[in-house]
Design a protein that fits this description.
This protein is an alpha/beta fold. The chain has a domain at 59-201 and 239-303: P-loop containing nucleotide triphosphate hydrolases (Rossmann fold). Helix content is 42%, strand content 14%. It contains 13 helices and 8 strands. Strands 4-5-3-6-7-8 form a 6-stranded mixed beta sheet, with helices on one face. Strands 1-2 form a two-stranded antiparallel sheet.
């Protein structure tokens, strides 16, 4: 399928409020205007390798599709095991804006029975929810027996976007970091199979994806005021990310970091990790394959260049 041509003028409220900014990237001052339809050469050239990404080219499309199909066959078997044994799986996807969370979730769920495989992407809390215990609105969406539930962002909003953008107090932020390991220990104690993925991307790749959203008539709805506001807050998000990893990466609920400059590799590694950590009936380890340690690994050690 051919990609749609970029419209000459594509607008939404976020685009109208966007202004040119000066950014410091790898020690260099760079000018970036999201409204300029021409992507800057320094972004285009440095996007894939940004943040120390280990590959110079994207994974071959045919190899990706062949491998993805094989892994999705295993996901179907895994779901049958879930339903037969009444097991529960909860998968949290976090990452900077434009890291590829939605597309990865779609790849995971594509051939799973949607009646028992739900995705949760909550809007901002209501007035009632703001008055509740912070974790309460999320718990109501947890899996019942036989269910596979993904969260496209989660309670970890309070570890990243909320403190960076001033949506919570410093006290609320620190309280969250203190309470979360105990909260997640309860999830494990309940017998839920629990995964936490951080999809990590480089700064130039994020700018490229923002620019693609801004100028596509099909995806401009993804370009939000948070994207605009966050463009100049890369370092603040990095600081919040490292603090989150320091306090909430535990043996009971480890953070699995997946470098996602190449969405194809990232999607395969996420699915592979889930399958390798669920001992379901008929699991084919040869079909699943082995993880790529350059793309996926545990916690802060994977963030050396981020």
């Amino acid at each position: 399928m051919k990609k749609p041509k970029k419209a000459a003028v594509v607008e939404n409220d976020a685009a109208e409020n966007a202004v040119a900014v000066q950014l410091k990237i790898d020690g260099k001052r760079r000018d970036f205007d999201i409204n300029d339809p021409e992507l800057p050469g320094w972004v285009k050239k440095g996007a894939l390798s940004s943040g120390g990404y280990p590959y110079q080219e994207k994974l071959d499309k045919d190899l990706y599709e062949e491998t993805l199909e094989a892994l999705q066959m295993e996901l179907v078997k895994m779901q049958a095991w879930l339903q037969k044994g009444g097991h529960r799986v909860l998968v949290v996807f976090e990452g900077r804006d434009a890291a590829g969370k939605g597309g990865t979730i779609a790849a995971v769920r594509e051939y799973m029975n949607p009646r028992q495989a739900r995705d949760v992407a909550l809007p901002k809390p209501t007035e009632t929810e703001r008055g509740q215990w912070y974790f309460q609105r999320y718990i109501s969406h947890f899996p019942t027996t036989g269910e596979f539930v993904t969260f496209d962002r989660s309670w970890y909003n309070r570890a990243g976007v909320e403190p960076v953008m001033g949506f919570c107090t410093a006290e609320q932020h620190l309280k969250f970091l203190e309470e979360t390991p105990r909260f997640e220990q309860m999830i494990k104690n309940e017998g839920i199979h629990f995964f936490k993925f951080w999809l990590n991307l480089g700064q130039e790749m994020q700018l490229k994806r923002f620019h693609d959203r801004r100028h596509s008539p099909l995806t401009i709805w993804k370009f939000s005021p948070m994207d605009v506001a966050g463009i100049t807050k890369w370092d603040a998000y990095t600081e919040a990310l490292h603090l989150m990893m320091d306090t909430t990466d535990t043996d009971e609920a480890p953070w699995i970091v997946v470098h996602s400059n190449d969405k194809r590799r990232a999607r395969l590694e996420v699915i592979r990790h889930i399958l390798l950590n669920l001992d379901y009936e008929g699991r084919d380890l040869q079909r699943i394959g082995t993880p790529d340690p350059r793309i996926i690994g545990r916690g802060k050690a994977m963030l050396a260049n981020h």
